[in-house]
Amino acid sequence: MSVLESLHNPSDLRALDPFQLHCLAAEIRELLISQVSRTGGHLGPNLGVVELTIALHAEFDSPRDRILFDTGHQSYVHKILTGRAGQLDSLRRRGGLSGYPSRAESPHDVIENSHASTALSYAFGLAEAQALNGQGHQQVVAVIGDGALTGGMAWEALNNIAASGKRNVVIVVNDNGRSYAPTVGGLAEHLGRLRTASEYERLLESGKRATRSIPVVGEAVYRGLHGVKSGLKELTAPQALFGDLGLKYLGPVDGHSITAMRAALQQAREYDRPVIVHCITRKGAGHPPAEQHEADRFHGIGVVDPATGLPLSPAGPSWTGVFGKELVALGAEREDLVAITAAMRGPVGLDGFAEAFPDRVYDVGIAEQHAVTSAVGMSLGGLHPVVAVYATFLNRAFDQVLMDAALHRAGITIVLDRAGITGDDGASHNGMWDMSLLQVVPGLRIAAPRDGATLRAELREAVAVRDAPTVVRFPKGAVPADLPALERVGVADVLARTGPQPPDVLLVGVGPMAAVAVDAAQRVARTADPAAGVTVVDPRWAKPVDPALVELAAQHSLIVTVEDNSLAGGFGSALAQALREARVDVPLRSFGIPSRFLDHASRGEILKDLGLTAEALADSVLTELAHLQPCSRAARSTGLVLAEGARAR
What we know:
By secondary structure, the chain is an alpha/beta fold. It has 25 helices and 18 strands. It has a seven-stranded mixed beta sheet with strand order 7-6-8-9-11-10-16, sandwiched between helices. A six-stranded mixed beta sheet has the order 12-13-15-14-17-18, sandwiched between helices. The chain has a five-stranded parallel beta sheet with strand order 1-2-3-5-4, with helices on both faces. It starts with a helix and ends with a helix. The model is unreliable at 214-236 and 637-649 (pLDDT under 50).
């Protein structure tokens, strides 16, 4: 039986000797490489926290003691040690383990965070609640990466933790010098100085041991060296950053030494105030392909060969790749164009721009709020910034979009990667909120391209706007084949006309749903009885609603919209409001994402569950037509008359 197989709960770790713990770490690494290579996931971050997580569970009594991870993608080892090793082959698959902590999976999972810089706020709240409930003897341990410490929310929480003086809060800084790519900013430089200071520690400790053995003068020389050590530490690593906050600092500690980590954690428990344990780890540790991968150390991988780390199937052109190449082309044409990212330069497609224009790209760390407002400042100075983030992370900067960008009519462009359903990363990564949130922002414009050609065109249109913020959103994954338009009506593209004319149904497909709408229209044309005509339109710009689209809607008996955004406040809602304001009384049926958190599964599986496939959409259109058929021509005539009246006014 392996050491891992002998474990039944985390407390069993305390009975293992150092050699057994070393063997356990090797077994966990082998399991991670084998299984995550098959499922895809965050391999590099978890290889980097194997010994750290073993030490945490050996020294703290989870779930009585609360262990929090920031962010939660580094929790695979925690899952393995808390009874879920046998389920790792189901990671990020429907019905299987989540790629993040999940309260539904285990009482050891306290929070389900995958947005960075939040764990310290959770820790403060938990510690305060435990103190008021008479449970102040229970520990709260927050494991936070150095990348997450670039987020301002983490420092807001540190301020409160220090002021509270709660002795039951232990903050473990997992310092691997990276979020995706190397961590940037002043904090990263400070932590780097602390790492350098550890070399002085080792040198001076060896000197102290030697001098203390010298008769008579040894102790005096030792005290002198101790003073030199303190001076050097203040010179090379100003620990006042933490000390002045009222936080005890321990470290740096070798995060790949279980013995060293356990000793530091034992010491941390004994202090009468909050403690920071600064541990140094290597992302991808123990797996040469990961350690040698300079871009992101296998931060997130697809299905790969476990021995080489190479993908098992070649990846086709992606939405992100199309955006990145077009931005480089635009950068060559416009010297005022700059790019901003929040610690995700590679994942959002800005590596090419950074290589071509290194002085015009800015990585602000995990600081989306700062990214947007600094972009506004740049626009006021005559530049046109392109802020590229995942759609789900723009949620954190809504106030800045509203009160900084829109209020100042700033000419900035926000590019939202991973918009709509992302799937396997779970509820927190689906980019399903952005169109709903942004609909309320005055003057802001939203483009939703359907393919590579329209992404390139709409990006160019967006950066040409100088008096308002613009947004370009697109999904995760491979970009589909280009879908040509038959004609342009206002700003919208007419993609298809099927069945008898004049048409009965206006089918509006937003962004990547346009191809689904075309397929659905063809299905309706083949099966509708009596025959029904369908016009398929891609609005291209989802905000504001184009008056020409309202006029087109009035020429149909039924309007159907389909979008990969929340139905609450999405494009369908905006079109319905525009129709009401124009007094166009045509029935409208909207399809999209319900306002609830979605379990992890593949993008295709979730779209099928939600009825956002061509087959399901066609069935829904046929059902609506069956209800409307007796009065469809009368409704269409009424709509046309009202639309003509609205134009006359």
